[in-house]
Amino acid sequence: MSTLITNVCKQYDNNQGKTVLSNVSAEIETGEFFVIVGPSGCGKSTLLRMIAGLTEITDGEIAIDGKVVNNLPPKDRNLTMVFQSYALFPFLSVWDNVAFGLKARKHDQAEVSERVNNALKMVNLEDLKDRKPRELSGGQRQRVALARAVASDAKICLMDEPLSNLDAQLRIKMRQEIYALQRKLGITLIYVTHDQVEAMTMADHIMVLHDSKVQQIGTPTEIYKNPANEFVASFFGVPPINIMYASKVGAHSIKVNNDYQLDLDQAVTENELKVGIRPNEMIVEKAEELQSNATVQNVEFLGDEKIVHAKFNNGVMVSAIVPSDTEFDMFETVKITSTGNVLLFSQDGINITENKGGLVNA
Amino acid sequence: MINIDERKILKNLFSYILLIVLAVVILVPFFIGIWTSFLPTADILKGNYFSTNISLTNYLDAFTKTPILRYLGNTVVVSTLIMLAHLLFCSMSAYAFVFLDFKYKKFFFALFMVTMMLPGEAAIIPNFQTVKALGLLDHYSAMVVPALTSAFGTFMLRQAFLQTPKELKEAADIEGLNHFQIFWKVILPYNRISLITLGAYSFLGAWNSYLWPILVTFSNESRVIQNGLKQLQSEETFNNWGMIQASAAIIVIPTILVLFIGQHYFKSGLNEGAVK
């Protein structure tokens, strides 16, 4: 059951007809893990709710398995949804919460109990099946919500930031559990998040939304190595990519930040451009004040590596990843350069890097 | 520093004295009533309130010599019917006002609210004429039918339903429940505390109503307890005050029961864990 989204638009009547989504198109294949990612307010939850049928579509078409579902109520779209807030029924036990939808869809009793028990086993909640949601921890509540999706026979599962209420450790654990479940059940999972790490680690395909428009759709590797534009490049990667102005100084070389010269493999086509350099491609060396071009502002120790935040003499901030055994002090003067492994953007932020496969292997 | 402490203590002292005085003012008549219900009428009339002649005779008399049991039965039936009707009709109308989309929704809700602004007494004459025309006088239905629904109940439940997390309804929508199922399986259980509150409020309201029942009932077959109490005074040529006090004490019992049982349900946190 592939899901086809064609030129979908959403405008609200109030709010001076504010456009929430414009011309969103995507094809979500059967059994894939599809992540919709973007900063808050970009319309990603709205898109998910439109697929679910909870929000009306202003324009465009959503088709599930070849059938246009624009005017179909949620229940006839054969999907399940895991809400950000879990939406558990506080007056029902864990078991009844999971069985709720199955009972409503009039499955026979034996089938309901088999499905519910299997689902609870899959999320390790068998022992807690008689508890009420208020007697569960956040992670356990999340698992009940997952079990509800697992127990359903729907082939599409929608998740709206299901992990955003959990603490960091639990989030990593649940991330793996959700991924494993999706692979095991073979369901199509459409997952909304604002967390680029979640998107990168779980997705088969990622849709990046920003400013109510699709910025790029691709695999995590494509999106990281070959971002369509400056926004996508800076949205993925921790710490974020350093974007600096650069100018052409030769056919194959540019001057970055009006500071140091960088030789590139590709031909430089524009006179004024922007360059994106991942923090791990930056080179930081200790330097005397006269040879230096930047000052260390802050150093973060992460264990295996350190992140150096430095300020170029002209005020531009950059971050760089250095080995953890190198010592940098605050306000130390340094010389910063980079490898040639960089992304080039036009002044408008469009990626103009020549894609030679190995060029950007960050 | 010491000055401030002294002022604080004085302030506390003053507050507590005020509270104690108020508590005494409120509770003393109540206790006098209970106490005199155990005293023989002769002692009460003599003003001998500290008599040690206490017994349960007054209660026995109330049950055996007066139709108070009949009154109680009538009141239980009428109050229960009114309570059930309020729960049913108010919750259904509140659901409509919250979850259904229809034209002029706001207007209709405003109209509902307007009826709440009218004092019940203002409607007594037209209501009486209607009930009389329908031939319901001196029946339970004369008391039940005009009180089948309550604008306050709808308003109260509407506010409660508005607080229900919308994800719960959406989850139910996705599972394919229809409006009636959502109403019955999601909205009502989620708002059971509000329903219990409204139920208690409606039951006690009906239990304590006086003016309307006294207008539409004439016989012991349909007379409710509050009117019955009044009746006890005039039926006897000699007012048996001890027994009347005992009857009054009996009437208060349900109110106290509802309060105590109700308190058990007002534990907070029953709905915790639904959404985060």
Automatic annotation (TrEMBL), chain A:
Gene Ontology MF annotations: ABC-type transporter activity; ATP binding; ATP hydrolysis activity
Superkingdom of the organism of origin: Bacteria
Pfam families: ABC_tran, TOBE_2
Record bears the keyword Cell membrane: yes
Keyword Nucleotide-binding: yes
SMART domains: AAA
Cellular component, GO annotation: ATP-binding cassette (ABC) transporter complex, substrate-binding subunit-containing
Swiss-Prot/TrEMBL keywords: ATP-binding, Cell membrane, Membrane, Nucleotide-binding, Translocase, Transport
Domain ABC transporter: 3-236
Name of the protein: ABC transporter ATP-binding protein
TrEMBL record, chain B:
GO terms classed as biological process: transmembrane transport
Classification lineage: Bacteria, Bacillati, Bacillota, Bacilli, Lactobacillales
Membrane topology reported for the UniProt record: Multi-pass membrane protein
Keyword Cell membrane: yes
Source organism of this protein record: Companilactobacillus suantsaicola
PROSITE patterns the record matches: ABC_TM1
The family this protein is said to belong to: Belongs to the binding-protein-dependent transport system permease family.
Descriptive protein name: Carbohydrate ABC transporter permease
GO cellular component, one term: plasma membrane
Gene3D superfamilies: MetI-like
